[in-house]
Write a structure and sequence with these properties.
The protein has about 250 residues and is an alpha+beta fold. Strands 1-2-3-7-6-5-4 form a seven-stranded mixed sheet, with helices on both faces. Strands 11-10-9-8-12 form a five-stranded antiparallel sheet, with no helix packed on it. It folds into two domains: about 200 residues, BirA Bifunctional Protein, domain 2 (2-Layer Sandwich); about 45 residues, SH3 type barrels (Roll), CATH 2.30.30. The structure holds biotin. The site of biotin has 20 residues, from helix 1, strand 3, strand 6 and strand 7.
């Protein structure tokens, strides 16, 4: 993959910017770089005035301190029903990247928050456009807490690399390392990606909450379509789509 990196100082949201200004690589001719590789556009902003989180959430990030960026993939070979593979590849690549900076365990809180201990270091917002039964393009937005020392929003449990290591990290180098891991992960079969092994709370009994209330369960894994499988303390299998269940932390 050839990464074409665009740096901008300020925008409302890099996901929105890329959707509006990203080049249309949907024709097969345009999707090839000079050496025949697929081109992947990456837009990096120093500051977002309306950074978007999942659902109605916003994304806090101090000017010039973190990595807030979006990239556009064109996995036209990927059936729409397997679109969760994008989430898996991106989150595994982020874990692998962060593990080159810290000794702490880096985990994926289903479906795709990146956690260190019980704190969130990175959020991912993926927006796919479908073309029939396939994915036409996928905008992958990533907010990675790098050098921010203090968080002021009501985000429940943020943490940054700076808070974990006590020193500043070069953001360009971090981005380059991530893009290498991502390129490697997207071509890896799901089973070898290690998504499930990296899941936060993969082992043991933990508290969850759904529309019926709080319950204890153990995690069984994730289905191909991304739904989470739990077994509750009564021995019942429960299957949840995103937002249907929350982790009680
Ligand atoms: C979440 O955990 O709620 C997802 C957060 C995603 C934030 C990133 S920052 C770069 C990109 N642009 C956005 O507006 N959001 C994503």
């Amino acid at each position: 993959m050839d990464f074409r990196i665009i740096h901008i100082d300020e925008t409302d949201s890099t996901n929105r910017w890329l959707r509006a200004n990203g080049q249309d690589y949907t024709s097969s001719v345009a999707s090839d770089g000079a050496d025949g590789h697929t081109v992947c556009e990456v837009v990096v902003a120093e500051y977002q005035t309306a950074g978007r989180g999942c659902g109605t959430n916003t994304w806090e990030s101090e000017h010039g301190k973190n990595l807030t960026f979006s990239l556009m993939l064109h996995p036209e070979w990927l059936p729409a029903r397997r679109q969760f593979l994008i989430s898996q590849a991106v989150s595994v690549a982020l874990c692998e990247t962060l593990e080159t900076y810290i000794y702490n365990k880096v985990e994926i809180k289903w479906p795709n928050d990146i956690y260190v201990g019980d704190r969130k270091i990175c959020g991912i917002l993926i927006e796919n456009r479908l073309k029939g039964p396939h994915i036409a393009d996928s905008i992958v937005g990533i907010g990675l807490n790098v050098n921010q020392a203090v968080f002021v929003s009501d985000a429940p449990n943020p943490v940054s690399l700076y808070q974990l290591t006590g020193k500043e990290t070069d953001r360009d180098e971090l981005l380059q390392r991530f893009l290498k891991h991502l390129e490697d992960a997207v071509y890896r079969p799901a089973a070898l990606m290690g998504y499930e092994e990296r899941l936060y709370r993969r082992e043991g009994w933990h508290a969850y909450k759904d529309a019926e209330g709080r319950f204890e369960a153990k995690m069984d894994g994730v289905m191909d379509d991304g739904r989470l499988m739990l077994t509750d303390s009564g021995g019942n299998r429960r299957v949840y789509a995103f937002k249907e269940v929350t982790f009680v932390i």
